[in-house]
Amino acid sequence: MLRPIFNRGAAYNAKGEYDQAISDCTKAIEINPRYARGYAGRGEAYVASGEYDLAISDCTKAIEIEPGLAVAYLNRGLAYYQKGEHGQAIPDYDKALEINPRYAEAYNNRGSLYMAKGENELAIANFNKAIEINPMFAEAYFNRGNIYAQKDDYDQAISDLHQGP
């Protein structure tokens, strides 16, 4: 009973129906209060809904329950990033990558954070790694292309932006 409810919540998250995702993840947590993925999934929906403090709280709870759950670090890092708390986000992205060194989304998110801080070489290195892991990762191409455009490397920017979303 727990898994189908959580899976439906994950589908709602993917579909952008965050209220339904939050509801289903909450139901999963009510069935099993130690279900770390339920907290992480609800945290993801809270991030998407702009409820960053709730996201941080849920992801922290997920990490307390299951310290090896990379997605909880990713989602908490994104919540911190969205709040402008970059110093809190980087260690979460680092931990997600320590747990799963092939986590392309974590490289992309960390690259976006470096880009926001104006640390373009670090950003490019992270986008490169995300693309190396997942050559179909359009958002990483898009992000890298924007940096190349800022650097007046228009040929590379055009090539990357052609791959972007």
Could you please describe the fold and organization of this structure?
The protein is 80% helix and 0% strand. It is mainly alpha-helical. It is elongated. It folds into two domains: 85 residues, Tetratricopeptide repeat domain (Serine Threonine Protein Phosphatase 5, Tetratricopeptide repeat), CATH 1.25.40.10; 64 residues, Tetratricopeptide repeat domain (Serine Threonine Protein Phosphatase 5, Tetratricopeptide repeat, Alpha Horseshoe). The protein starts with a helix and ends with a helix.
Q: What keywords describe this structure?
A:
Serine Threonine Protein Phosphatase 5, Tetratricopeptide repeat; elongated; 10 helices; 2 domains; single chain; 165 residues; mainly alpha
In the residues, how many domains can be counted? 2
The CATH class assignment of the largest domain is: Mainly Alpha
The overall pLDDT average reads: 95
Q: Radius of gyration over alpha carbons?
A: 17 Å
Question: Spans of 5+ residues with little confidence (pLDDT < 50)?
Answer: none
Largest sheet: none
**What would you call the structural class?**
mainly alpha
Kindly state the number of beta strands: 0
Strand content: under 5%
What is the CATH topology assignment of the largest domain?
Serine Threonine Protein Phosphatase 5, Tetratricopeptide repeat
Shape: elongated
CATH superfamily heading of the largest domain: Tetratricopeptide repeat domain
